[in-house]
Design goal:
Heat Shock Protein 90, two-stranded antiparallel ribbon, 2 domains, 8 helices, alpha+beta
Length: 266
C-alpha cells in the first residue's frame, strides 16, 4: 500500500506541467494536500466495504479469514494516519496551521487514542497500562491536534514494542519548582501537566535522541513509518507552549515525555 501512495504521487507529478513543479513551496504543499485528499476517498470506501463484509459474513469465516480482515482494516487505519501526518506537515510548511483552543481532558483524549489504535494493540497482544491521578487539571489546547500527538507517540511505542509487551502511560502535574518550567518556550509562572509514554522496545541510540524529532528522520531506516510522526508531535506541542523530549538506553526501551499548560494559566 505504501508503494501505491508513492506511485500515485509520482504519476501525478509526471503528468503535471513542468512549470507547476517549479512553483513556490506553498503551491507544492497545496498540491500534496490535494493528493492526500484524493487518497482518502478510496481508502474510506475500502474500509466501509471491509466493515460490511465483516458484519455480514462473520459467521461464515474461519479464524484465518477473520485475521486477514483484521490485518486489512489495521493497514487501512495506518495508511490514514500516514495521510493525516502528510497533510499536517503540508499545513505546517505553508504556515496554515490555526489552533482552536479549549479545555481538554487528557485522560479522555488518551482513551480515544487507545481506541483508535485498538486493532494494532490487539494484533501485537500488547497491554496499555495507565497511571493517572483521579483529580487532574485540564489543559488548554486544540483537541484534534493533541489527539494527533497521543496517536503518533502511542503508534511509535506500539510499533517498537515486542509482541506481548507493555506500553505504559503516566499523566500528572509538573512540580511548580521543576527546572523544566524555566526552559525556553514555557509560559512563565504557569502550571503544566506532563505525559510520559514508555515502551520496552529496542531503545534509541544516544546520538539520535535529538534528531529523532526532525522531519523524515528514522532511527531504523528499514523500520515502519515515514519519519513524520514525531516531527509533528514536536511542532504541535511547541505551538501549545509546551515541550517534548525522549529518554532512552539501548536495549531498555524509550520514554517519551511532553508537557502542556494547564487551563486558566495567565
Amino acid at each position: 500500500m505504501r508503494r501505491l501512495i508513492l506511485a500515485y504521487t509520482v504519476t501525478q507529478l509526471q503528468d503535471a506541467p513542468a512549470e507547476s513543479i517549479r512553483r513556490p513551496d506553498s503551491a507544492r504543499t497545496d498540491y500534496m494536500a490535494m493528493v492526500c485528499h484524493d487518497l482518502r476517498t478510496p481508502l474510506a470506501a475500502i474500509k466501509e466495504a471491509l466493515a460490511l463484509l465483516t458484519e455480514t459474513a462473520s459467521g461464515q469465516l474461519d479464524e484465518r479469514q477473520r485475521r486477514y480482515l483484521t490485518v486489512a482494516r489495521e493497514e487501512i487505519d495506518r495508511l490514514n494516519r500516514m495521510i493525516n501526518n502528510l497533510v499536517e506537515v503540508s499545513r505546517m510548511d505553508s504556515g496554515k496551521v490555526v489552533l482552536y483552543s479549549d479545555a481538554v481532558d487528557l485522560p479522555d483524549l488518551l482513551s480515544t487514542a487507545i481506541e483508535s489504535l485498538s486493532l494494532l494493540i490487539s494484533r501485537r497482544n500488547l497491554v496499555v497500562e495507565r497511571n493517572i491521578p483521579s483529580a487532574l487539571p485540564r489543559v488548554m489546547g486544540d483537541r484534534d491536534r493533541l489527539l494527533r500527538v497521543f496517536n503518533n507517540i502511542l503508534d511509535n511505542a506500539i510499533k517498537y514494542s515486542p509482541p506481548g509487551g507493555t506500553v505504559r502511560v503516566a499523566i500528572g502535574s509538573v512540580d511548580p519548582g521543576s527546572s523544566e518550567l524555566t526552559e525556553r518556550g514555557i509560559l512563565a509562572g504557569s502550571g503544566y501537566v506532563r505525559v510520559t509514554v514508555s515502551d520496552d522496545g529496542p531503545g534509541i541510540p544516544a546520538e539520535a535522541l535529538e534528531r529523532i524529532f526532525d522531519k523524515y528522520e528514522c532511527v531504523d531506516p528499514h523500520g515502519p513509518g515515514t519519519g513524520l510522526g514525531l516531527a509533528i508531535v514536536r511542532s504541535i506541542v511547541e505551538m501549545h507552549h509546551g515541550k517534548v523530549w525522549v529518554e532512552s538506553t539501548l536495549g531498555q526501551g524509550a520514554r517519551f515525555h511532553f508537557m502542556l499548560p494547564i487551563k486558566g494559566n495567565s
